Amino acid sequence: MPIQYEYRYMSEPTQKLEIWCAGKDWCPVTATATLIGKKWHTVVLHRLLDNGPLGFNALKDEVGGISSKVLSDVLEDLEQKQLINREIVNEKPVRVEYSLTDVGESLESVIMEMADWGQEHLMPAATEDSSIA
User: Fold this and answer.
1) Which GO MF terms does the UniProt record name (predicted)?
2) Phi, psi (5° rounding) for residue 126?
């Protein structure tokens, strides 16, 4: 059963999202991981934080290594979770632009801490096949 959690940014409620959490007791770490823990979610949020609003192809270029289908699925999921906005820009040709919602922007400190931690503790793998098992 989803549990409502009131997101707070700058000590003011912004909106409530229903977030699933395993177990009897609600856990903010589990709930946050459920919200952004999929492979490409934080990468997309990070690129939008760094670059501001982007069209689909520009975002795909910024993310790198993601297929159009997977990016489309990620964007749909993040929009459904109310972390990004999808706006149709009425230009010739018509295009779609993606930007962060206020709740999405409030994840900036979390995502930047991940970037800082990675910079301090990780280095590129010697080969593309190298990974931690």
Assistant:
1) DNA binding
2) -65, -35
How many CB atoms lie under 10 A from the CB of residue 110? Answer: 12
Residue 57 identity: N
pLDDT of residue 13: 46
From the centroid of its chain, how far is CA 53? 13
Domains detected in the chain: 3-120 (1.10.10.10)
DSSP assigned state of 19: E
Output the six-digit token pair for 7. Answer: 């997101």
> Do residues 103 and 7 lie in contact, with contact meaning Cβ atoms separated by under 8 Å?
yes
* H-helix or E-strand spanning residue 99: strand 95-100
One-letter-per-residue 3-state SS of 64-91:
CCCCHHHHHHHHHHHHHCCCEEEEEECC
Low-confidence ranges of the chain (pLDDT < 70): 1-16, 20-21, 23, 128-133
